[in-house]
Structure prediction request, 105 residues.
Amino acid sequence: NEFDTAYDQSQIIVLGAGFDSGYWRRGISHGLYIECDRTSVITKKQSIIERTAELKKTANKENNFYLLACDLDDVDQLSKKILSTNINMNLPTLFIAEAALVYLA
Prediction:
C-alpha cells in the first residue's frame, strides 16, 4: 500500500473493523493503528487475540495498536475514544471505512 510506505510515521483508523487482519497484513511498525467497532465485535476480537500467542505479542498499546469499542453513530463518543489513544494530530492519517458507512443511519 502506498500510504504505508510514503511516510516515516503515519496513523490508520479503521471504522467498522470487524475481524479484519489489516494490522498484521500491513506489518505496521512505524505508526498508530486504531480499530473501531461495536462492543460485541471488539470483545470477540480481543478474546481471539488473547488466545493466540503470535497475535497477542504484537497487538498491544506498546506497539501502538488499539481496539476501541464504540457506536459509530455516536460521533462524540468515537472522537473521545480516538483522542484517548496516543494519536498525533500532526501525522498523516488514513481513515478506512470499507463497509461501515452503509450501516450508519
In short: Strands lie at 10-15, 31-37, 65-69, 93-96. The helical segments are 2-6, 22-26, 39-51, 53-58, 75-83. The first helix runs from residue 2 to 6. The chain has a mean pLDDT of 88.
